[in-house]
Amino acid sequence: MHNRKTFIILLPIIFVFLFIVGCNNNHEQNSNSAELQIAAASDLTLAFTELGKMFEEETGTKVTFSFGSTGQLADQIANGAPFDVFAAANVKFVDDLKAKGHVMPDSQKMYALGRIGIATVKDSSLKVTNLEDLLKPEVKKIAIANPDHAPYGLAAKQAFQAVGIWDEIETKLVYGRNISDTLTFIETGNVEAGIIALSLVKEEDVHFSLIESQLHEPIKQSIAVINGTEQERTAKEFIKFILGPTGQPVMERYGFSLPKENE
Question: Is Cell division included in the keywords of this UniProt record (predicted)?
């Protein structure tokens, strides 16, 4: 009888203990199962794929990327696409989303400056080292990202205009949806040359010549956390990771530089 009374007295304590343990386990499971959905400009494909794996190893957070043209991704976010972070190839798109209340203002950071250059396939006999070389008759088609929504395409257009050959070049242009599409046009031989991001260059695949940065507006790249995310803390951790001592050397290795705004 004594043992039974003791058990009845201890029963509520046991229930409370089990409830606390269950809550802790659920919290632990939720932490371990955290996943970030990141909308990222196509020029980040190589760098962010590598950094995503490093971040996952360091934090246990799974990172899923949707790479595309900055303008199209911005439209998706404005229409409610469930992303946690937006890494744009042009600060203007993040500024526009911030003005409309779609991103957290205090989370926005400049994370990189991009560069463009002229690319031809490795086995091409064409000698193309500057923009004027693209006027050669043997260069029949030139790929650039669509300047209407892709920042690297806009930079290419500005460079052509700066050297005064836009009107002559325009009839040769083939537009990719984004800078990765543009590279695909080159690699598959559908065009003789193209303007791509330095960050996507693989030396074994293409010949590449940098275009002077003075010929176009700086490609200032900005990143921010999306309003309404359930992963705010982890999203901010990812941005800090990109800007930190682990992320920046990787970004630099892929041809990006850190904007002075973050120095």
Answer: no
* Two tokens, residue 137: 């008759």
Global pTM exceeds 0.85: no
Q: Are residues 56 and 184 in the same domain?
A: no
151-162 and 179-187 helices, crossing angle to 10°: 70
Q: Domain holding 224: CATH number?
A: 3.40.190.10
Among residues 134, 142, 154, the alpha carbon closest in space to that of 43 is found at 154
Q: What are phi and psi of 112, to 5 degrees?
A: -165, 160
Instruction: Identify the domain containing residue 205 by its residue range.
Output: 114-215
Q: What percent of the chain has pLDDT over 90?
A: 82
At 28-77, the pLDDT tens digits run 334 445 799 999 999 999 999 999 999 999 999 999 999 999 999 999 99
- 17 in any annotated domain: no
Report if residue 1 sits inside a domain. no
Number of folded domains that form the chain: 2
Q: What are phi and psi of 257, to 5 degrees?
A: -125, 160
Residues 132-150: b if buried by 16+ CB within 10 A, e if exposed: eebeeeebeebbbbbbebb
Helices (H), the chain: 2-32, 45-59, 70-78, 91-99, 151-162, 166-169, 179-187, 232-243, 247-253
CB 130 within 8 A of CB 116: no
Does 104 share its domain with 119?
no
Q: Are residues 107 and 224 in the same domain?
A: yes
Pair (211, 130) in one structural domain: yes
The tokens for 143 are: 């790929």
Q: Computed from CA positions of residues 67, 72, 78, 80, in that sequence, does the dihedral angle turn out positive or negative?
A: negative
**pLDDT tens, 108-144?**
999 999 999 999 999 888 989 999 999 999 999 999 9
